[in-house]
């Protein structure tokens, strides 16, 4: 199977939406504090011009972002962005654009920054397949062409997409807000692809580019999750012994193959349970469980509620 089949299967299972919240145009010194996001939100920042420093408020560790860098925080951690000078930030003022997002400015005379800040939204329970299998911080760079070592085609595609987002956020053209937010689904996909191409992720699904021997098992589980996969079956797809497969999967992906398969199945089951007229028995069978009791037990353990409770909550509009 192709290298990125797992990504296509993943994004067919879940719906990722997003919105731009604020466009920051600052002169140094400046500082912005972001609190912990909810379980279903992933903050993102796109540096259009200048540079910014990401600071972990707990450890004080910093990482520099420069023009073209795109930052995601898949676990929604609290974070601080600033100019790196250590000076007291200039006061900011904001006004809401007609399209719906805020423009935040200051009177700083130092190095200029232009940055888009927003967030992606992932409906429950699908955030489990994102947060549990992505690093806490993910940064990629949108670059024109292929000049930079370690940058693949997705970086160039990101540059084109970011250019379009910059233009749509620069005026009040009709439909600008809808167009911009629609672009964020493509942005999310390209960010994951670019991160895979860069091989920067030490663990999780994005690390598969650097460990292609595991890709057949991942792709198989996403493509046919209802099949009664055994560890020897999956190991055979990867031309490994069972023990080697188990060790490498845990080391590289950060979860066991059984855990990933269960998360995929429960995510699919959650979608099926929302459909009217389909029984719990049929849902269990569709995701590979011949025992309804076993399905109910696993679903309750993963979701914190029974299939019936999930179905009622979904029909009441609570999910």
Describe the structure.
This protein is α+β, with helices and mostly antiparallel strands. It folds into 2 domains: 5-205, Jelly Rolls (Sandwich); 227-315, Homeodomain-like (Arc Repressor Mutant, subunit A, Orthogonal Bundle), CATH 1.10.10.60. Helix content is 39%, strand content 21%. It contains 11 helices and 11 strands. It has helices at residues 5-13, 127-131, 153-168, 176-198, 215-223, 231-237, 242-253, 257-273, 280-286, 292-303, 307-315, and strands at 16-27, 31-34, 41-49, 51-55, 62-66, 69-72, 79-82, 92-96, 102-106, 112-122, 138-141. The protein has a 7-stranded mixed sheet. The protein has a 4-stranded antiparallel sheet with strand order 2-7-4-5, with no helix packed on it. Helix 1 packs parallel to helix 5, helix 3 runs antiparallel to helix 4 (176-198) and helix 8 (257-273) crosses helix 10. The protein is globular. The two termini are 34 Å apart. The model has no long low-confidence stretch (mean pLDDT 87).
């Amino acid at each position: 199977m192709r290298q990125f089949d797992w990504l296509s299967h993943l994004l067919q299972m879940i719906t990722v939406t997003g919105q731009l919240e604020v466009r920051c145009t600052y002169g140094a010194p400046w500082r912005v504090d972001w609190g912990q996001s909810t379980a279903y939100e992933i903050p993102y920042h796109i540096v259009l011009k200048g540079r910014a420093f990401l600071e972990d408020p707990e450890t004080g560790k910093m990482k520099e972002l420069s023009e073209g860098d795109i930052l995601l925080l898949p676990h929604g951690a609290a974070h601080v962005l600033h100019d790196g000078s250590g000076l007291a930030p200039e006061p900011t003022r904001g006004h809401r654009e007609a399209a719906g997002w805020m423009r935040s400015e200051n009177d700083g005379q130092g190095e200029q920054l232009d940055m888009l800040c927003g967030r992606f939204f992932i409906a429950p329970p699908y955030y489990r397949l994102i947060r549990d299998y992505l690093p806490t911080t993910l940064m990629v760079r949108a670059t024109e062409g292929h000049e930079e070592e370690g940058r693949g085609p997705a970086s160039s595609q990101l540059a084109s997409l970011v250019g379009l987002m910059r233009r749509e956020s620069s005026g009040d053209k009709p439909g600008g807000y809808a167009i911009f937010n629609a672009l964020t689904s493509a942005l999310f996909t390209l960010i994951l692809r670019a991160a895979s191409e860069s091989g920067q992720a030490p663990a999780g699904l994005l690390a598969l580019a650097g460990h292609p021997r595991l890709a057949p098992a991942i792709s198989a589980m996403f493509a046919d999750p209802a099949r009664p996969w055994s560890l020897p079956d999956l190991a055979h797809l990867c031309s490994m012994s069972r023990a080697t497969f188990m060790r490498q999967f845990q080391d590289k992906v950060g979860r066991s193959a059984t855990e990933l398969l269960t998360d995929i199945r429960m995510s699919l089951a959650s979608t099926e349970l929302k459909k009217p007229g389909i029984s719990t028995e049929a849902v269990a069978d569709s995701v590979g469980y011949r025992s309804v009791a076993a399905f109910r037990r696993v679903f309750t353990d993963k979701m914190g509620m029974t299939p019936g409770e999930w179905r009622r909550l979904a029909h009441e509009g609570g999910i």
